[in-house]
Structures are given as structure tokens and as C-alpha cells.
Design brief:
6 helices, 2 strands
Length: about 140
């Protein structure tokens, strides 16, 4: 399993919106500038996030995007499943129940299932709020006398 830039950037977009949630709707050009990501590429990612209901959108002069829920309501796993379609480490685990023709006789299936469970549980245990908290903690410990 490899997380694409689409998945990583989706998390960065949502973190940016969470950091600026008190500012109302945020223009995509502002996110693109702060995150140093092409606005054109962000438009593709935002379309996925908006369609899923994660983002609220507003058109017009003061339009833009904002989170539909609190940062604590979004897990990294949830976001990556939207952008990556699957987090399964092997193709036979992409669909449940397992549709692999060798599934019932596969001697290594338990290995991949265990890895899949670890990945899913780990990514579902981290929220955007957790990342924000860790970021603030790192900034608090970064001081010079």
C-alpha cells in the first residue's frame, strides 16, 4: 500500500481548514498558497471531499470551503478511504467478503488480514484534532532562549 499525493494533500487541505476554521469559508487560492500546492490539483481533491459531505462550500465573493464537522469527527482513515479508494495492503482484501479464488486455501491470508486490521485501526484512531494537538505540542516545545 502506498498513499498517493491526493491522499496526503487531502489531509493537508483539511488540516489547513481546521487551523483556520474561525475565519469562515476559506478560498482555495489561500490554501494553495499556504500549503504550496497547485490550485488546479487542489480543485480535484476538493471535489471529492465536497461530494462526500466532508466540506461545506460557498460560492461568491466571500466563498470558499470549510469543514462540515469538528476536526475531531474526521479520521485519517476516513479521509484516505475517500481519496485512495482502499487501504488494503493486498488486492484480495479490497472487497469484503474476500472474493479471491484462492482465499479459502491461501496459507498467508491471515498475515495480510492482520496487517490490514492494523492499518485500518491505526488510521481510524487518529483524528484531524489529534494532528492539530500534536502540531501545537511541537510548536510549544520549539523555543529558544
Amino acid at each position: 500500500m502506498k498513499i498517493s499525493t491526493k491522499g496526503r494533500y487531502a489531509i493537508r487541505i483539511l488540516l489547513d481548514l481546521a487551523e483556520h476554521e474561525n475565519e469562515g469559508y476559506i478560498a482555495l487560492k489561500d490554501i494553495a498558497k499556504r500549503q504550496n500546492i497547485s490550485k488546479k490539483y487542489l480543485e480535484q481533491i476538493v471535489a471529492i471531499l465536497s461530494k462526500s459531505g466532508i466540506l461545506l462550500t460557498s460560492r461568491g465573493f466571500h466563498g470558499g470551503y470549510k469543514l462540515a464537522k469538528a476536526p475531531s469527527q474526521y479520521t485519517v482513515g476516513m479521509i484516505l478511504r475517500l481519496t485512495e479508494n482502499s487501504l488494503a495492503p493486498v488486492s484480495c482484501l479490497k472487497h469484503m467478503p474476500n472474493q479471491c479464488e484462492n482465499g479459502s486455501a491461501c496459507p498467508t491470508l491471515f498475515v495480510w488480514q492482520g496487517l490490514n486490521d492494523l492499518i485500518q485501526n491505526y488510521l481510524d484512531s487518529i483524528t484531524l484534532q489529534d494532528i492539530l494537538n500534536k502540531q501545537q505540542e511541537n510548536y510549544a516545545n520549539d523555543y529558544v532562549i
